[in-house]
Design brief:
The complex is a heterodimer. Helix content of chain A is 72%, strand content 3%. Chain A is mainly alpha-helical. Chain A has a single domain, classed as ABC transporter involved in vitamin B12 uptake, BtuC. A two-stranded antiparallel ribbon of chain A has the order 1-4. In chain A, strands 2-3 form a two-stranded antiparallel sheet. In chain A, strand 2 (162-163) and strand 3 (166-167) form a beta hairpin. In chain A, helix 3 packs across helix 12. The longest helix of chain A is centred in the C-terminal third of the chain and has 27 residues, at 210-236. The radius of gyration of chain A is 20 Å and the shape is globular. Mean pLDDT of chain A is 84; it is low at 1-6. Chain B is globular. Chain B has helices spanning 2-26, 29-38, 53-68, 82-94, 113-121, 145-160, 178-193, 209-222, 234-246, 263-271, 283-300, 331-340; strands spanning 42-46, 72-75, 101-104, 125-129, 139-142, 167-171, 198-201, 228-231, 254-259, 277-281, 309-312, 315-319. Chain B has 2 domains: 37-144 and 283-314, Rossmann fold (3-Layer(aba) Sandwich); 145-281, Rossmann fold (3-Layer(aba) Sandwich). By secondary structure, chain B is of the alpha/beta class. The chains are: A mainly alpha, B alpha/beta. Chains A and B meet through helix 2, helix 11 and helix 13 of A and helix 8 and helix 9 of B.
């Protein structure tokens, strides 16, 4: 802050820039686009990024600890597809859910173990486990890309749940965001994640259980993916495993990174995810209202991301430490 | 006496004729020529992916018939990845067991053109199914997407009625796939003839149900009085229907889509009112058309790449009112049948 009370340009980081862009877009859309400011439309915006945001929360925790989870979308789609397939072929609900929980836990543990104890880079481990999960479930456990939710099942009922006319995903996203905030901010292990992400060797030297915590983060990310998958199936009454081939995974990383969670680890928090998700949500909604074709939508999305990264690079030049350690 | 002798002679002649007739039937050159031309021939299907109803239906009907005439039927699963499909085609052409007929479900207008040319040069007949491409294949079997779009638009106009808002929303696929582009062209042709009907929005779903839901939510938010929505594929129309359900507009928005006529994907949803009308492809007949053209090409003796036939499948917009027990085919039943073998 200078004496005039204006925010100092130097203190503006990527989160601030993206937040400013989001506010400008919001105001412009509110003035220029009829119906944008309508409460129902605002709810629709939040809802449209809820599943994305939930996945980004899991990704954020992993990235802050200087890792990345490229298996998130595969876990999300395939765990739920397998669950629904089990239900459709007559397995009892409890047993099916227990299988799926065990499967998700196993993949999270495998990711964490390979990264933490076998010292394989996270980007390769999770890329491989993601392909494995998709390939195995798709070829061995389910018969089709799209698996429907059995009629009257709780997942279907979940999709119809509304409080104050607001869909359930929004509350789940808000609740999870709050829980992650408490975890990262006020728990010992949450704080440790920043230390471990900032400087793993130093964290280990002062006695932080760096490796078990790494495993925990991948398990957490896997369970968050399961929740996101269940919410997707709840809304659409089916899950389509084609989503694994889509750009969703990049969108998750985009939300986390555009919000200002550095890929070099140790920085950022839940607020960054919310800012990133807000920008993407407002942008997509406004472009849909204007009826911009998908090709141009992707172009505009990419241009804004590039712009934010360039401005961040100018305002916050990379310091000696990051230069030495490098990103993931 | 003379009469008796004549009668006997006639009877003998008759008996001889009767005796000779079966021998004559056994000499029908058809079956032998048919068997000789077809036996051991290889047919390969490369769809966009094996994991969805159309491809599984085609594979079922083709396999049954090809194996019945002593051929080999194979499929490749590129799982929606264009490169993987290209790889599968390349491998097939250069392998020792080069297929005699290659059935290709093209992802867009141009991707596989060079490979298909190579296949024909190697002597493989190329059939395009469902999606047209900028390539003179030996035969195209599938929907006339323009006509299909017209049927959708007509169904939407009928679903809206004269006293409606006459506002129609489109959920397109993308801007690269021929099925999406031609479908759009067909819809606009009909709407041009009905100037009182207006397209209020035409977002793309990129064939993804979640995207379809989000864009439809926005569309309904902006135009709550839309009377009909046309979603370009039943694979993502579940998203559009979720948006309609969430906006509590069930029964007010007439949802039109198109699909392969699978029971769970189409007929069940017409029955429960999720879809107002579905332009369904008669999959068994479409597979039958493919079988017929394969049998023709293999017997014709003409080199690959010299014939260019278009065989469009008869399309029809089906609504709940004209739903019949045999309107759809049942993927579960086909899978059970295959598993029982």
């Amino acid at each position: 802050m200078n004496t005039l009370g204006w925010p100092n340009l130097r203190s503006l980081n990527q989160e601030g820039i993206v937040f400013a862009i989001a506010v400008v877009l919001f105001v412009a859309a509110a003035i220029g686009l009829p119906g944008f400011i309508d409460p129902n439309n605002l709810v629709a915006i939040v809802r449209s990024v809820s599943v994305l945001g939930i996945l980004a929360l899991g990704m954020a925790v992993v990235i802050i600890g200087r890792g990345i989870d490229l298996s998130a979308v595969a876990i999300m789609a395939m765990s739920v597809a397998w669950y629904l397939q089990l239900l459709n072929t007559g397995t009892s609900d409890g047993l099916a859910f227990a299988y799926v929980l065990a499967g998700v836990l196993a993949i999270g543990l495998l990711n964490g173990f390979l990264v933490a104890y076998a010292d394989v880079p996270a980007i390769f481990v999770t890329l491989a486990t993601g392909s494995f999960v998709f390939g195995y479930v798709r070829s061995q456990l389910i018969t089709q890309d799209a698996v429907p939710v059995p009629q009257g099942h709780w997942v279907e009922l979940l999709g119809g749940l509304r409080f104050l006319d607001i869909p359930i995903e929004v509350f789940v996203f808000a609740g999870l965001a709050f829980l992650f905030f408490l975890f990262l901010r006020y728990t010992k292990w949450g704080r440790y994640i920043y230390f471990a992400g900032d400087n793993p060797t130093a964290a280990r030297n002062i006695g932080i259980p760096v490796r078990p915590m790494l495993v925990l983060r991948y398990v957490l990310s896997a369970f968050v993916a399961l929740i996101a998958g269940l919410l997707t199936a709840a809304s659409l009454h089916s899950i389509n495993t084609r989503v694994v081939n889509s750009t969703l995974l990049y969108d998750i990383v985009l939300v986390a990174v555009i919000g200002g969670i550095g890929l070099s680890g140790g920085r950022g928090g839940v607020r960054n995810v919310l800012v990133g998700a807000a920008l993407i949500g407002i942008l997509l909604n406004a472009m849909t209202i204007i009826d911009i074709p998908l090709l141009y939508q992707n172009l505009i999305k990419a241009a804004i991301l590039l712009g934010a990264i360039i401005v961040d690079g100018i305002i916050n030049p990379r310091d000696e430490q990051t230069a030495q350690q490098g990103d993931i | 006496m003379k009469l008796i002798r004549t009668l006997m002679a006639a009877a003998t002649a008759l008996a001889v004729t009767a005796f000779v007739a079966p021998t004559f039937a056994a000499d029908d050159p058809g079956p032998a020529a048919y068997a000789q031309a077809l036996k051991g021939k290889r047919v390969m299907l490369v769809p966009l992916a094996m994991g969805f109803d159309l491809a599984q239906g085609w594979a079922h009907y083709l396999k049954k018939e090809v194996e019945a005439w002593g051929g080999t039927f194979e499929t490749r699963d590129p799982n929606w990845v264009v490169d993987a499909g290209a790889q599968a085609i390349t491998d097939a052409i250069s392998s020792d067991t080069r297929p005699d007929v290659l059935i290709i479900h093209a992802p867009d207008l141009n991707s596989y053109s060079k490979l298909m040319k190579k296949a024909q040069a190697a002597g493989t007949y190329v059939l395009l199914v469902d999606n047209p491409a900028n390539f003179p294949a030996d035969a195209f079997v599938g929907s006339d997407w323009d006509r299909l779009g017209q049927l959708e638009a007509e169904a939407a106009i009928k679903g809206c009625g004269e006293n409606s808002s006459k506002k129609i929303g489109l959920v397109q696929g993308d801007q690269a796939n021929s099925s999406s582009l031609y479908q759009y062209a067909g819809i606009m042709k009909v709407l041009d003839k009905h100037p009182d009907f207006k397209v209020v929005a035409k977002p793309d779903s990129n064939w993804d149900a979640t995207t379809s839901r989000n864009v439809t939510t926005t569309m309904l938010q902006q135009n709550p009085d839309i009377c009909s929505i046309i979603d370009f594929w039943d694979g993502d129309a579940t998203g559009a229907s979720a948006a309609i359900r969430d906006a509590k507009l069930d029964g007010k928005v007439f949802l039109v889509t198109t699909g392969g006529g699978e029971k769970a994907a189409d007929c069940d949803k017409l029955q429960d009112g999720t879809y107002g009308a579905v332009v369904m492809t008669d999959l068994a007949r479409q597979s039958g058309d493919m079988n017929a053209i394969i049998k023709f090409l293999l017997q014709s003796g003409q080199p690959a790449g010299t014939s260019h036939t278009y065989i469009y499948t008869l399309e029809k917009a089906t609504t709940k009112a004209d739903l019949k027990p045999d309107s759809c085919w049942d993927l579960k039943a086909l899978q059970a049948e295959a598993a029982a073998k």
